[in-house]
Amino acid sequence: MPNTLPDNFLWGGAVAAHQLEGGWDQGGKGISVVDVVTAGAYGQQRKITDGILPSESYPNHEAIDFYHHYKDDVKLFAEMGFKCFRTSIAWTRIFPNGDEEVPNEAGLEFYDALFDELLKYGIEPVVTLSHFEMPLHLANKYDGWMSRTVLDYFVKFAMTVIEHYQHKVKYWMTFNEINNQKNVATDIFGWLCSGVKFPSKERPEEAMYQAVHHQFVAAATVVKKAHALNPNLLVGCMCAMVPYYPYSSNPDDVMLSQVAMRDRYYFSDVMVKGHYPSYAKKEWQQKGYNIQFAEGDESILAEGKADYLGFSYYMSNTIKADAKTTNAGLMDGSSEYSVKNPYVKASDWGWQIDPVGLRYTLASLWERYEVPMFIVENGLGALDEVDENGYCEDDYRINYLKAHIEQMEKAVSLDGVELMGYTPWGCIDLVSFTTGEMRKRYGFIYVDKHDDGTGTLNRSRKKSFYWYKNVIASNGSKL
Ligand code: P53
């Protein structure tokens, strides 16, 4: 296929501060909501503890210690030819408790040094403002995003860093996978997205819509303020896009999968279109929900539309109308009507691998919104085995990524989608979000760190490292 990706296509990799930095209590950093989340495993939920307990293990505290290794790691990204690197700024490095008057200088210095290091190699930083790591203090004192006060603290944090780094960082994103918290069957999503435990609320879903409303207003406020500060800045939103397919051509399956897709679209609809979709208002009415809006909220949403739609894509999911299950608490994008898709295989963690679903997602989003898109996460979490040199023959990872890039290129060349870039998740091995494991690896770079906390933290190149380097060098034509 002829290569149709633009010359300035942003190839790179993606991570989140809490999943790789470590240094959880260094440089004046405060405690974040994820600092009290323990290790879990496939099928075993991570626990949220009341403060930090000496008897528990918290994998994010050290993670892969990027905090001290970032110079060497960035050098490896540069060797692969990265054009961009997506990470987040840990809110607690800048405002340790979230409600301080002035930012923590040591925190600002850390990201200045990191961004300088990236720019030294011509790598554009792409920065998520909130990636599951808000200050614990704001969660405990204000019930997280249930409170409008937190909205103000977030805008203060966001504008502090946007103003400070505006000449180093052009690409910003507000809330990582803001739609994960739509799943209110388990604490973890609401806790990490919003600092709220929705299952213990009287009406969990209503509480979730309220917290999310505050985030929508915060996101729009930040878009507006960032543009006023510096018109060169682009501020996008970020959603987890797990498409729901109808299990069959039974009209009930087709209809239910369309309605289920609103679990995803609800969020991008508000942030990209700048207003609530009519199905949202109908749902609130029908369920008797009363979502509080402050005066002016609707115009803020309309004036602060996201500049681009960033999304993660790992898998698809399939819906069957007569198959009510107890899947709703699962970590794989399932709804209570999800069944296995007989046409696709799943990863070792049960995520259903579906490259065509990426083209389907890109085309659907493009037709719905017609805004530039950015695939800011994609990849395969797998068990890796390394030889004595730390080398790993990860052909399964190469095959996964290759198949997805092929579909991405079709979406550009055949469907005409406007795509800014592609940043595979966990370009260097890091702590899994859903399980807290190290063994669920995504990286091109292996990190010698294990679930029991042992390991030298040495970095080594996997086979996929050399493969991805060629992909970037050929702008996606040599897969
Ligand atoms: P881990 C579901 C569907 C798509 C993305 O996850 C998801 C999820 C989890 O609910 O989350 C993203 O590490 C998230 C990252 C995370 C990545 O998926 O459990 O943005 O922080 O690490 C992969 O394999």
From TrEMBL:
Pfam families: Glyco_hydro_1
Entry annotated with the keyword Coiled coil: no
Active site positions: 377 (nucleophile)
Gene Ontology biological process terms, A to Z: carbohydrate catabolic process
Keywords: Glycosidase, Hydrolase
Cellular component terms per the entry's GO annotation: cytosol
Source organism, top-level taxon: Bacteria
GO molecular function, one term: beta-glucosidase activity
Family under the similarity heading: Belongs to the glycosyl hydrolase 1 family.
NCBIfam families cross-referenced by the UniProt entry: PRK09589.1, PRK15014.1
Descriptive protein name: 6-phospho-beta-glucosidase
